[in-house]
Amino acid sequence: IVSYSVPSESNIEIVLCDVNGATVKTLFAGFTPAGAMSISFDASGLASGSYTLIIRDGNTVATEQIRIQK
């Protein structure tokens, strides 16, 4: 589960990138209202390892390192 907060309604994109920076999965792309949100995603097709979660909303980009273990 990925939890995030959006300060004002906007179009956002949430992507998961591998260690080389390539997008391996788009978790969400679209309009979201202001407030706290969460989404879940299926990681069964991904290899164990480190990934970067990127959340973009207009002028803001937030990143977080995550680890998937199987």
Question: What's the assembly state of these chains?
Answer: single chain
Largest sheet composition: 4 strands, antiparallel
Give me the secondary-structure category: mainly beta
Q: Helix tally?
A: 0
Strand order of the largest sheet: 3-2-5-6
Shape: globular
The count of strands amounts to 6
Q: Give the termini distance in whole angstroms.
A: 16 Å
The fraction of residues in strands falls at over 45%
Write up what this structure looks like.
The model has no long low-confidence stretch (mean pLDDT 92). The strands form 2 sheets. The protein has a 4-stranded antiparallel β-sheet with strand order 3-2-5-6, with no helix packed on it. A two-stranded antiparallel ribbon has the order 1-4. It contains no helices and 6 strands. It is mainly β and 70 residues long.
